[in-house]
Amino acid sequence: MKVSAITMRELQIPLKQFFETSFGRVTHRRIFLVTVDCEGVEGWGECVAGEGPFFSYEWIETAWVTIREFLAPALLGSTLEGAAHSGRLMGRIRGHNMAKAGLENALWDAEAKQKKLPLWRLLAGTRPEVSSGVSIGIQDSHEQLLEKIQVELDAGYQRIKVKVKPGWDIDVLERIRARWPNIPLSCDANSAYRPSDLERLRKLDDFKLLMIEQPLWEDDIWHHAKLQRELKSSICLDESIHNARDAETAIELGACRIINIKVGRVGGFREAIALHNLCQNSGIPVWCGGMLESGIGRAHNIALSTLPNFSLPGDVSASNRYWSEDIIDPEIEVRSTGTIAVSNQAGLGYEIKKDLINKLTVREETFKRRSAIA
Ligand code: OSB
Ligand code: MG
Predict the structure, then answer these.
(1) Is the peptide bond before 330 cis (omega within 30 degrees of 0)?
(2) Among the options 262, 354, 359, 368, which is catalytic?
(3) pLDDT reading at 373 higher than 70
(4) Model pTM greater than 0.90?
(5) Once rounded to an integer, what is the mean pLDDT over residues 200-219?
(6) Cβ 58 under 6 angstroms from ligand 1
(7) Residue 163 CA to ligand 1 centre (angstroms)
(8) At residue 374, does pLDDT exceed 50?
(9) Is the pLDDT of residue 372 over 80?
């Protein structure tokens, strides 16, 4: 496949409801779409970098300039055996995994379309449907949170994850467990605790949680290993894992028993699959994380979730939880069994609503071989 053009688009879309984590609240998403043109076949990707450098150092502006200045020039005009080979061309650029993943995943979509295969088949997925859970942000009151949980349980979601931070944790979990003693429940701290919070973390340990996600620093593995020894609950790492080697380190040190795979965080499908395989061979279950994606990133996440070791429900849920109208057709829907059926159409498996995308676009840049055209 030959890469003849790359287009970046920023869309601004309001969330139906704000999403708050320990690192802040977002009310509008800046959605960053990447399109590649490969011999007339268009592939779509989404760069999941956030509105600011809070989840990780990457954010939309660093991703935008890194693609413009380094990653797009590395790919343009090149002939690739397949999307999996794009990483080698981008390898000289250190870090910036979300920027790389936006491009690589667009190439996977193009390759799947060229081969007339559903993307999940090209990734060697095995499941015709994937299990869906929800991630519920910090709310203004306990009552609001309980109401939201009720709505999601009624919709059939297989697992509830709540965001926690010191002060929005023990009381919240007490209220939840008082009402639903046995639902599959987990919590995600997004690095809000320190080892000195051990007594508080021991209290979280008493709520029969499926896992405690990323309690400590976003760049730490060692202290998570020390903490895991102190807790009954499984630690799940998210922010700390950027590639299969990080996972190897974490598993060997005993820093977690579960890993959340986000294809953006690890730099694309090639590395996500390597990480998945490593975990599978080490007996570590994985699940697919979410980054408040539009339908395009969501479709990529669904395809990835069809791999066999995605044995826990992911944070990939229905479009209508986030958007009044999604940019793909049909929108992502979750059945009353808490599962998402996988599309068997070629590529991503969904139609792209170009008119809606044009309406929501606030900036756009296209690069063709050699010269950049704004
Ligand atoms: O840590 O999993 C996270 C959203 C933004 C940044 C980080 C995270 C999240 C979520 C939301 O938990 C998952 C989703 O519904 O997309
Ligand atoms: Mg997380």
Answers:
(1) yes
(2) 262
(3) no
(4) yes
(5) 97
(6) no
(7) 9
(8) no
(9) no
262 Cα nearest atom in ligand 1: 2
Mean pLDDT, residues 177-188: 98
* pLDDT reported for residue 369: 80
Determine the residue of 135, 152, 157 to mutate for testing ligand 1's pocket, defined as the one with the most ligand atoms within 8 A of the Cβ atom.
135
Domain 121-341 in this protein, CATH class? alpha beta
Render pLDDT for 61-116 as a digit per residue (tens, 0 to 9): 999 999 999 999 999 989 999 999 999 999 999 999 999 999 999 999 999 999 99
Residue position matching structure tokens 């590649």: 36
**Per-chain mean pLDDT for the chain:** 97
Cα 224 to middle of ligand 1, angstroms:
20
Take atom 7 of ligand 1 and give the residue whose Cα is closest.
Answer: 291
Give the residue whose CA is nearest to atom 13 of ligand 1: 290
Q: Confirm whether 116 is a catalytic residue.
A: no
Instruction: Report which residue type is found at 118.
Output: P
Catalytic residue from among 163, 208, 353, 354: 163
Q: Please give the structure tokens belonging to residue 45.
A: 């990707």
CA distance 21 to 12: 20
**Domain 3-116+352-373, CATH:** 3.30.390.10
Q: How far is the CA of 67 from the centre of ligand 2 (A)?
A: 25
One-letter identity of residue 309: N
Q: Which of 13, 18, 21, 320 to mutate to test the pocket of ligand 1 (most atoms within 8 A of CB)?
A: 21
Distance 373 CA to ligand 1 centre (A): 34
Residues of each domain in the chain carrying CATH 3.20.20.120? 121-341
Looking at residue 30, its pLDDT comes to 98
100 is annotated as an active-site residue: no
